[in-house]
Amino acid sequence: MDLSCTFGLLEKEARRRRIILNQNQKNTLLAWFEKNPNPDLATRGHLAKELGISESQIMTWFQKNRKIQKQVEFECYFEESQAPKQDKPKVKEARRSRTHFSRFQTDILIEAFEKNRFPGIATREKLAQRTGIPESRIHIWFQNRRARHPGRKQATAQLSQNSQCPALKTTDQPAPSKTLSSRLSVTTALSPPHTPSGPLNLSRGHQKQLSRTTVLQPSQVVQGRGDGQNSSVFIGHLSPVVTPGEEGFHTQAPLCLQIQERLQDPGESSGSAVPPLDSSTRAPAVNQHFRELDQKLFTFLQHWDEWLRSMLAEWIPDEKYWSPGESELHPQQVQLQQPASISHQVDTTPQQ
DNA sequence: TTACTAACCTATTCAACGT
DNA sequence: ACGTTGAATAGGTTAGTAA
Predict the structure, then answer these.
(1) Separation between the CA of A242 and the C1’ of B11 (whole angstroms)
(2) Which residues surround strand B, with CB < 7 Å?
(3) How does pLDDT run across A222-254, given as a tens digit for each residue?
(4) Are A49 and A57 in contact (CB under 8 A)?
(5) What is this structure's pTM?
(6) Helices A135-148 and A121-131: crossing angle, nearest 10°?
(7) N or C: fewer beta carbons within 10 Å in chain A?
């Protein structure tokens, strides 16, 4: 069993291959949508056959369009200050008849669920073959199962969407978006405002990305993007960061220590990656403000590292892989540099 | 690089069915 | 009546693709 299998988050299983609907297909769907935005099973089946795509894809398309329609109606409501159009009287559409799974089928699904709660399309199709259940039903089965069997291990290992680490909440927005956008530069999000890359770049793209971001997802810290674009930003707040340079790896002082040093001696930066406070160009009150921000950042990073260690301790009982020893790298660091070897090494995770 | 959007997620609700 | 669980929905995010 490799690490990705253990955590179910280092490497996501592939999604269903994305299909692109052609104009003809779209026109047909739109025509049906205008007639009835909530088609019943028979209609969806008919459309699936006619358009040569699966019934679940038809359903997804209708879901998406209902969403769009609602949004449009909402906007019209405010623009025209008119009451939204009266909905057509809802005709009760026939539901798909309840699927009855045999004991054999259920056993196979449960077994698969225990191995992986988030099976990709390949796994679902294999399960469909093994059980004779349509893939779309398997997908639904896993959704229902996840909802009804949260499971502690999952809650921690997956670092469930509602983050359990209070220190990670970066804002108190009421409806936290569930994940840190993978596109967001965390350097930007975490940087004190006086750094050159502070959160001031509010070009359209950035605005869009920032608006989505409220909670840092530790799962994504470990997962990273696999392309090294933002991965290193997360690691080593308290621990030395080893980064590959032109002349081999070199060690950088931990971000936390840099901030701590700066807090103690704001005038000195001594090659730190974190710029010093600039007393010549900033009023004392402003510097005081930045010191406070530094203090908050420092506290945040401390919580972050403590929490991350506790999670790693739980995930990987063999301490040598994560404890801040003399020479060992943190697993994240190892993974960033040697993805193949670590997944092999860390195969000591307790089996279920 | 950006916009679009299919695929996917969780949370919630409805409803069939067995007890 | 109640619990279990498949099906459906809303509203959100992720990630592939075309422009």
Answers:
(1) 41
(2) A 15-21, 57, 60-61, 63-64, 92, 95, 97-98, 118, 120-121, 139, 142-144, 146-147, 160-162, 178, 203-205, 208
(3) 333 333 333 333 333 333 333 333 333 333 344
(4) no
(5) 0.49
(6) 110
(7) C
Residue A150 is predicted with a pLDDT of 78
The pLDDT tens digits of the residues spanning A119-178 come to 999 999 999 999 999 999 999 999 999 999 876 544 333 333 333 333 333 333 333 333
On the question of pLDDT at A179 being above 80, the answer is: no
